[in-house]
Amino acid sequence: MDPAEERRKVKGQGYSRTKEGSAQLPEERRFKCVLIGVCVAVVLFALAFLVLTGVKSSQSPQDITSNWFVAWGTWAGGLGTAAAFLIAAFSISVASAHARLDRRQAAEIREDNDMAQARLLIIYKVEGAHSISSLATYRIENRSKDFFFDVTVPYVDSPYGSDASIECRTADLVAQDNRLGEFIPTAEQLTPYRDHTDHEAWFTLVTVHTSDASGIRFAVEYTDAGGRRWRQELGGEITRVHTIQAVPIRPPDRFQPPQQIRRMSDMELRRMGGGFSKDLEPLESDEEFLDVIEVPNVVRWKRIERIEDIVAEADDASDRTGSLQVSVTFSPKAPPFWGDHFHGKLAGSGLRYAGGSSERTQTDRFRCPPQVDTSGLGDLIDAAIRYANDRFEENELAAARRALESRRNRANTST
């Protein structure tokens, strides 16, 4: 086995000399071999002396003199010196090996203790009956009894589009593109488990649009209460990040958006439309349409019109394909269901919805592939707006108006 791999295995298993019992260090096994070798050498030397002395005394007794014993004594002294040197040298080697093992075990224990809080940051995918497959949601929770600081997801690699190519999403791109429902945390502060304030919570979310949630990859970087910086992969692997930078200052009014701290209701999903409501059961009554659209939108309904020129510019996220990003601004702000008609009509012409923003007016952005003729975009989009107005008035708005009229009739009857 490779030495580095063996060290990783020993480290992962928590090597303990007490646990291993009779397991010996390599230096101990070599020292044992040296001791056995020395003992064998001494025994052989003693046997050789006795046998040769006996043979010589029987054949030529006159040669057994003091010089005979002095010569053997000299050899015995040399053998003893060599044996003592070997035993001392290997004893030092064994002592050094034990010292290294003790230091390594102490370092592993310190590393394990340092990582104790870091292991209590949990990352998992949120699954549920109303989960939206095209908007993957991952929850980052602080299960420890102390704070985590500067909780940041540097990037998210997500399969996106019909070809499932990898799209690198960052917090800056999410803020710039304003894609509906997307959120990537940066410099968040997580409170202890199940504790929260008006400005922090004990968890945050990562939500990104994707065509295949199983292909999403990202890591979370964070600082524990001891000032140690860590990086945790989506699969749970934690590594130490050495840094000389202080934890950045957070704006005092920074707080996780409301949609990040609870699951949206069916009513909210229907009002969001698009992929958020595609898995919900169809509405069955006029009252349900009225609840989703809301009474003020029914009363103040006015046909939507484009109010600004169409803007077509290079799409930074699709440089390789040569696609354009088309922005359309219209007024008033679209009610629920209207956007589904509008986006669906344009999708049939090759324009794919890519997010939007709204206040009093609304701006929708679309990805326009290079094969679409941009010279007729104005007429195409105006026709789609008229189509959406007609379909909305004929279906959802008509149902909501019937429900509103029934409410008024019931109110008048009761009065």
Explain how this protein is built.
The protein is of the alpha+beta class. The strands form three sheets. Strands 3, 4, 5, 6, 8, 9 and 10 form a seven-stranded antiparallel beta sheet that branches. It starts with a helix and ends with a helix.
Q: Mean pLDDT, nearest integer?
A: 83
Low-confidence stretches: 6-21
Principal-axis shape equals rod-shaped
- Give the strand content: 15-25%
Structural class label = alpha+beta
Quick gist of this model?
41% of the residues lie in helices and 20% in strands.
SSE layout and pairings?
Elements: H1 3-13, H2 17-20, H3 26-59, H4 66-114, E1 121-125, E2 135-142, E3 148-152, E4 156-160, E5 165-169, H5 171-177, E6 188-190, E7 203-209, E8 217-223, E9 229-233, E10 238-241, H6 266-272, H7 286-293, H8 295-299, E11 305-306, E12 311-314, E13 324-331, H9 338-347, E14 352-358, E15 362-368, H10 377-394, H11 396-414
Antiparallel strand pairs: 1-2, 2-7, 3-6, 3-8, 4-5, 4-8, 8-9, 9-10, 11-13, 12-13, 13-15, 14-15
Helix pairs in contact: 3-4, 7-11, 9-10, 10-11
Tag the structure with descriptive keywords.
415 residues; alpha+beta; five-stranded antiparallel β-sheet; 11 helices; 15 strands
